[in-house]
Amino acid sequence: MRLTLSYAGFLMVAGALLLAVVWVFLLRYVPEGAISISGPGRDRPGGPPGHFIPGRSDLQKAFFPRAAAALAVLLAFGLLGGWILAGRMLAPLTRIADAARMTSAGSLSHRIRLEGRRDEFRELADVFDTMLDQLESHIAEQRRFAANASHELRTPLAISRTLLDAARDDPAHDQGELIARLHTVNTRAIDLTEALLVLSRADRRSFTREPVDLSLLAEEAAETLLPLAEKRQITLEVTGEKAQTAGSAELLLRVVMNLVQNAIVHNLPAGGAVTVHTGSWDGTSVLRVENTGRPVPPELIPTLTEPFQRGTQRIRADEHAGMGLGLAIVQSIVRAHNGTLDIAPRPAGGLLVTIRLAGTPPNGPR
Question: Mean pLDDT over residues 319-347, rounded?
Answer without folding.
Answer: 81
